[in-house]
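thread: overnight batch results

M.L. [08:02]
morning all. the overnight job finished for the chain we discussed friday. pasting input first so we're all looking at the same thing
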Amino acid sequence: KSMLCLALMINGKPIGALSVYTDRPRRFTIDEIWLLQSIANHAALAIQKARFYESLIQVERLHKELEIAAAIQERLLPKGAPEFEGIDAAGRNIPSQQVGGDYYDLIRITDDHLGIAIADVAGKSVPGAIMMASARAALRVNIENVYRVQDIITKLNRFLCADMLPYEFITLFYGVIEVSSLTLTYTNAGHNPPLIFRGDEVIELWKGGPLLGVFPDVVYEEDQIQLLPGDILVLYTDGITEAINERDEIFGEERLREVVARNRDLPAEGILDGIFKAVEEFIGGEERPDDQTAVVVKILPR
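M.L. [08:03]
and the structure it wrote out:
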């Protein structure tokens, strides 16, 4: 028997081989070799086109997933802040190119209670959006049926632990402001600590427990703080403080504090404008790898 083997080449790189066998020993003629080489070249081009179309299909599928995730995420976010006398609240989310799992909420629980939530899911695209939708639904159900903040988050954690994969988790801060007394009761489940700006002082809200969806038997703690007229409560996700510029520097919490301090006399929306403008100027033309979300609640003078 005889065999002729020709490489299938794309851009000078081998991607396969074309082999021809004969029933008896013989030499291949020049014409046969040229014919088989032509067949090999056409086969390589066909494979190249098939791979190209496959990549287009994958890109189209990814774009569709991102559109679905963005639609889910947009529906999760509040259309505006509920109005309470003496409270000025606003929130904003700028999704990344990958569409992450950030979520915030401003909820009228009663005519005297404002619920505030901010969360970040360890996941992107459709899985992250679905996970956050599930967490949001469970949180709202618990808010309607449970009144203690720590019990709400403890129940939410047990639900998520039973529903999430081992590598999935959520960080979340949830608090309730009793408007008549200006009392904030909160639990922080592994989230970036929100900041209360009070004169020259900045108070960090750490109390709570670990991130959600990992430890089912955790009983979360709650803390209570007396708010004062003039206080500014700022909640944010790590897409703000971990934004990176072209020199691989992070925006950081210190810059966030400086921005809020400079804009403290503005309404809540104005403070948000200042935060997002500062982050945008800091990163310049760099890609935004993570969602950026912030909530501002101002306690107005009485």
